Amino acid sequence: MSTHFLLEAPVGLLPVLAFLATLLHFDSYRLVNLKEIVGCLVAGLALAAAAYFINGAILQLLAINVPTYSHTLAPAVEEGLKATAVLYLFLRNRIGFMIDAAILGFAVGTGFSLFENIYYLHAYEGANIGVWIVRGFGTAIMHGGATALFALVSQSFIEEKGAPKPVHFLLGLLPAIALHLLFNLIADIPLLPTAVVLFGLPPLFYLTFSKNEHAVHQWLVDDYKSHAQLLDEINSGAFRHSEAGRFILELSRKFSPAMVEDVFTYLKLHTQLVLRAEQLALARERQEAVEPAPQNAEDLRVLHELEKRIGASAMMALWPHLHFSRRELWEMHALYGA
To answer: Mean pLDDT over all residues of the chain?
Structure first.
């Protein structure tokens, strides 16, 4: 390993990791855990490896040179690949707010950029330090920022419109591709792309975090109150006699009379788990050291067993009437990483 490599590697690799660490530092609710970050980094690395072969195949197929490709198709190909990892998180209800959308999206882009820069560090050992300043402070952070932008725009549409739809993700992809394309088009102007990224992305993240922290707090407080009331109604038996309770009762009986108790047990356990997750998040906001309830893992196992017993088709029919949204599912997943 040469002295040049030891000097250049930190410049090419550390800035984007430092940027990611800064985003995590400002996540006062700890919406994202280390396991999720590592998973996103690994996904980004794997997608960058795939991009290496896909880009090579497209260049060979179309018989065009690298500059032409980077100014036309490359941004769409690479942003589309990175978006698949974030899309998986959305579909698995692992993203609930703008803050975790930004962090997880940036983490995927970080993994992608690390693969690229490690490859270039080996392939172009003779490149001067200026190249690694641009790649470390510019290209790498652009990759993280573009994927974060995809996640942010997609999440904003989901929050505004409700259930996620393909059009939300397609609209989210457009600004990510545009940022990547702009960066590539001005790449020949010394330090301009790096300046655009360094002066453009931090204010975007700052505004997102400051605005969304209040929204997270308000949602947690309101949701906690409504779930606490729901649990009281379930424990007292009042919920069974409410309009929603009677509807769930009738719907359960249509599938199987034996299913009724399973459904109400599921509803109670689900509410308890969501309340615990909300208590944990609110305690973290107050910077209190709170340990997750020891029974979480066992209760989650029981919940999944109940889901299997109730069955997929019955769950699909019942779910719209169970008083839970995508964000409650996100809170449930947060318990795993607590």
So the answer is: 87
